[in-house]
Amino acid sequence: MVAAATVAVTAPPASAGDRSTHVLLISVDGMHQSDLTRYTTTHPGSTLAALLGHGTEYTHARTPVPSDSFPGLLAQVTGGGPATTGVYYDATYNRALLPAGTTSCVGARPGTAVNYTEDLDRTKNAIDAGQGLPGLPGNVLAMTGAPQSLLDPARLPVDPRTCTPVYPHQYLQVNTVFEVARQAGLRTAWADKHPAYEILDGPTGTGVQDLFTPEINSLVPGTTGDWTTDNAATQRYDSYKVRAVLNEIGGYDHSGAHRVSTPAIFGLNFQSVSTAQKLPLSGGRTGGYLPGDGGPGPVLSSALDFVDQQLGAITAELKRRHLDRSTTIVLSAKHGQSPTAPSALTRIDDGALLDGLNGAWRAAHPGAADLVTLATDDDAMVLWLTDRSTVATTFAKNYLLTRSGLGNDISGAPKPFVHSGLDRAYSGDDAARYFHARPGDPRVPDLVGIAQYGVVYTGGTKKIAEHGGAAADDRDVPLVITGPGRPHAVATPVGTTQIAPTILRLLGLRPDALQAVRIEGTEVLPR
C-alpha cells in the first residue's frame, strides 16, 4: 500500500458564491474532448452547448493510465491514480491475497486473480444481478441501493490475515468523496453498471448511501445478447439510471418509492457512447467514426443525441425543483476510446501472442509453468507473471517486442503487425516506475505494453475500438463544470484526479480530507 504523505495539501475555502448544495457528477464513458467540441459546434441549441455556456470547460483534461473504467472513475472520486488507489483495472492480480473459495488459510500460498466484474454477481445474466425482482427489466428501479448483498462471497479473493472475502470497497486503499461527505452528515448516491461498483463505498464501506447498479452484461430479455451488444438496448439501459437520478433530484431514493432528500453528491455514468464507438454495426447501421475525420457515424451520432436529450431531462428537472442554482454539474468521462480513425484499426489476437510467450518460456526453462498468470489486454497489454525475476520480466518484454504476424483491419481483411502491436513496453521495476508505484508492490503489473495507435487486442471482429491504453484517444476526455458567471475555457492541462478535491471544495469541505490528495498533492481545478 502507498504510504500517506506527511504534509497535507490544503486549498483555500470556497467562497460563499462558489459553494454548492449539490454536486451532480456525470461520466459519459468513451466521450472525447473532440466529440464535445464537434457536437456543441454542430448543435448550438443542445444541452451540452448550454452546459458550456454556463460553466468552465477544461479543454486539455486527461485520465490516468490504464484508462479503464475502474481506475478512471476512482480517479474522479478519490483524487488518485492506480498506484495510490491500488486499483489498476477491474480484473487484476494480487500476490498478497488468496484465491476465491479458500477456507483454510494457514500455510496457503498467496497470489490470485482479483476479478471485480459482472462475474461476482449472484446471477450475472439478470439485470438485478440475482435479487429476484419480478417484472424485469421494467421493475429494475426496485433494485437494492446496497448491492454488496448481490455479490457472491465465494467468488471474492480472500485476505490471509482474516481468512475472509475481500469485497471491492475493502480493496480500495484510499477514501472517496462519498465517505468525506457522509462524515460531514451529507447524503450520497450513485448509479453505475455492475454491483462491483460498491467499491465506491470506500474502505469504510459506508460511502454511497444509495448505489443503483443494474447489471449491464446481463441478457436483454428475449435475446441472446447483453445490453452492450445493441446500442438501442444500451440507451434503454442508460435510461433506467437517468430515471434514478431524476427521482433523486426530486428528493426520493433511486427507486422513487421512499422520500429522503436530494443528495449532496450524486450522479451516474452513460454507456451509450462507449458501445456506439465499439460496435461495428448496430441495428443495421455503422458504428464508430466515419473515415477521414468524418466525425461520428450514424450509431454514435444517435448515442450522442440520446445523451444530450437525457442531460436535458436532468437539467429541466433541476430547474423544475428549483435546484438549478444550488447544483453544480461536473461532466467528464472515465475514459475515451481508441482509435477514432477507422483506417488505423489493427485487431490482434492477444491469446495467440501470449500462448507463444508461454511456449517460448517453457522451452527455455524445461519444467517451468506458464509465464503469464493473468493478462488484461484491451488496447494496452497489462501482464502479471508467475516469475517476477529480472530474467523473466525481461524475457517477456523481449519476446513481445520481436513478434510479428497478421491481424485484421476494419473490414476484417488481413493486416500485418510488428512488435506484437506495441510501441514500447516496460517490465519489472520499470513497469512499477511507469505507474509511480513501489517496485515489488503485490498489486502492480509485471509488464505494461503501450500499444501502437489503432491496435485493439481481440480474438475476433466484434470490436472496432477499445480503451485502457495511453493514446490520446483513450485519455483526452471532456471536463466541464457548470457555475455562475460567463463561460470560460481553460487550456491548462489538468487531470481527472482533480475532480475529487474540486467536488469537496464546491461543497465547502476540505479537499485534504481525501487521502489520495495528501499522497499525490492533487490540486483543485484552476478557476
Automatic annotation (TrEMBL):
Q: Which Pfam families match?
A: Phosphodiest (PF01663)
Tell me the InterPro entries matching this sequence: Alkaline_phosphatase_core_sf, Phosphodiest/P_Trfase
Domain of life, source organism: Bacteria
Q: Which SUPFAM superfamilies match?
A: Alkaline phosphatase-like
What name goes with this protein?
Answer: Phosphodiesterase
What organism is recorded for this protein? Amycolatopsis balhimycina DSM 5908
- Write the lineage as a comma-separated list: Bacteria, Bacillati, Actinomycetota, Actinomycetes, Pseudonocardiales
